[in-house]
Specification:
Elements (H helix, E strand, L loop, with lengths): L3 E9 L5 E10 L4 E5 L6 H9 L6 E6 L2 E2 L10 E5 L10 H11 L4 H14 L15 H13 L5 E5 L7 H18 L2 E6 L2 H7 L2 E6 L2 E6 L1 H6 L4 H6 L6 E8 L2 E4 L2 E4 L2 H9 L5 E6 L4 E6 L10 E10 L4 E7 L2 E5 L4 H8 L9 E6 L1 H5 L2
Parallel strand pairs: 3-8, 3-9, 6-7, 7-8
Antiparallel strand pairs: 1-2, 1-4, 4-5, 9-10, 11-12, 11-14, 12-13, 15-19, 16-17, 16-19, 17-18
Helix pairs in contact: 2-3, 2-4
Bound molecules: adenosine-5'-triphosphate.
Adenosine-5'-triphosphate binds next to helix 1.
GO molecular function, one term: ATP binding
GO biological process, one term: carbohydrate transport
InterPro entries: AAA+_ATPase, ABC_transporter-like_ATP-bd, ABC_transporter-like_CS, ABC_transpr_MalK-like, ABC_transpr_MalK/UgpC-like, Mo/tungstate-bd_C_term_dom, NA-bd_OB-fold, OB_MalK-like
């Protein structure tokens, strides 16, 4: 079993900086776990402690059935894949991929067989005799993956492995890594600052901020039930809207419409002292019938707002608007409106939209 268990893991650097605070995390054998958060939140330091590249100040780290706090990196049987790939420029692909096995004094025939097998998986068979300088970014990244695979380690530890690739290649490699991890079934811990990568790759995602774990959960769980405003705002693109609202007679009055409250929330809010101001979080897709104000007359619980910017991404249009409770975004501009010349975006500022909360949100208890 190659589970990875962190109990109360803390890192204080010699200069006093507290980079990681009391992290508890159980990673199951074969699980793909993503550490995500803004720059400086402690995700690389956490990964480096698992790899053995940083000492652990406090807490216990187990890999498989061993406590590894005091084991050197090479004794932990984990393979690291870095953003920089860290390939040797003077070695060809075959030698780069076989290097960890040569270090471990594995015999030549076995090394060859393992390298060939990994090259097959990674579609590198035709490039085995090339030097890294003669490979594309995506191919180099695959060589770095290959070097990790040949060792058949207990775990893969990946630190932003895709961040040097262009956007298109990043999406391709993301799919490859996902497929590869599933077929090998190797426990994987993957660091990224990119919430899209986190949401699409991981079985579970650990959201960190300022050295503290904010929430651990499956991607859908983080999206649907964020535990705090930070997670709510960090996960999802475009980001969740936060608007000021007030509690009045058991209903939340918001600038974009009234929202019902379930009993638990109503009681919790009523226990608070006046004024009963709250922040509501609405996903950009929580609106419907969004249209330019002149497009049609509205009936029902609608609101009007001023458009700041319209961004057309081809398939989607993002509408950035200002409601009374603050700025907000929606992705739900109606097809009808988008067809009528709206793709010419810059000119759309200062237009009015009318919209309403979608039925599911209006009815949500
Ligand atoms: P990034 O996405 O920018 O790489 P990160 O989430 O991986 O960020 P870490 O590199 O783990 O963050 O750093 C966490 C904190 O620890 C930061 O405040 C950083 O400045 C600090 N830190 C990192 N390495 C050291 C060090 N060697 N000495 C002192 N402080 C450090």
């Amino acid at each position: 079993m190659a589970e990875i268990i962190l109990e109360g893991v803390t890192k204080r650097f010699p200069d006093g900086a507290l980079a990681v605070k009391d992290v508890d995390l159980d990673i199951a054998d074969g699980e793909f776990v993503i550490l995500v958060g803004p720059s400086g939140c402690g995700k690389s330091t956490t990964l480096n402690m698992i790899a053995g590249l940083e000492d652990i100040t406090e807490g216990t780290l187990r890999i498989g059935d061993r406590v590894v706090n005091d084991l050197a990196p090479k004794e932990r049987d984990v393979a690291m894949v870095f953003q920089s790939y860290a390939l040797y420029p003077h070695m060809n692909v075959r030698e780069n991929m076989g290097f960890p096995l040569r270090l471990a004094k594995v015999d030549k025939a076995t090394i060859n067989a393992k390298v060939e097998e990994a090259a097959q998986i990674l579609d590198l068979t035709g490039h085995l005799d090339r030097k890294p300088a003669n490979l594309s970014g995506g191919q180099r990244q695959r060589v770095a993956m290959g070097r990790a695979i040949v060792r058949d380690p207990k775990a893969f530890l990946m630190d932003e492995p895709l961040s040097n690739l262009d956007a298109k290649l990043r999406v391709q490699m993301r799919t490859q890594i996902s497929r590869l991890q599933r077929s090998l079934g190797t426990t994987t811990v993957y660091v990224t600052h990119d919430q899209t990568e986190a949401m699409t790759l991981g079985d579970r995602v650990v959201v960190m901020r300022q050295g503290l774990v904010q929430q651990i959960g499956a991607p859908a769980e983080l999206y649907d039930s964020p535990r705090n405003i930070f997670v709510a705002g960090f996960i999802g693109s475009p980001a969740m809207n936060f608007l000021n609202a007030a509690l009045e007679a058991g209903v939340l009055r918001s600038p974009v419409g009234d929202l019902p409250l379930d009993d638990r929330m109503r009681q919790a809010l009523e226990r608070q002292k006046a004024p009963r101001e709250v922040i509501i979080g609405l996903r950009p897709e929580a609106f419907e019938d969004v249209a330019l104000a002149h497009d049609r007359d509205r009936t029902g619980p609608a609101f009007a707002a001023t458009v700041e910017v319209l961004e057309s991404l081809g398939s989607d249009v993002y509408v950035y608007f200002t409601a009374e409770g603050g700025p907000a975004t929606t992705t739900e501009l109606e097809e009808l409106a988008t067809d009528s010349g709206l793709r010419d975006t810059g000119a759309q500022a200062a237009q009015q939209i009318v919209a309403r909360l979608d039925a599911a949100t209006r009815a949500r208890e």
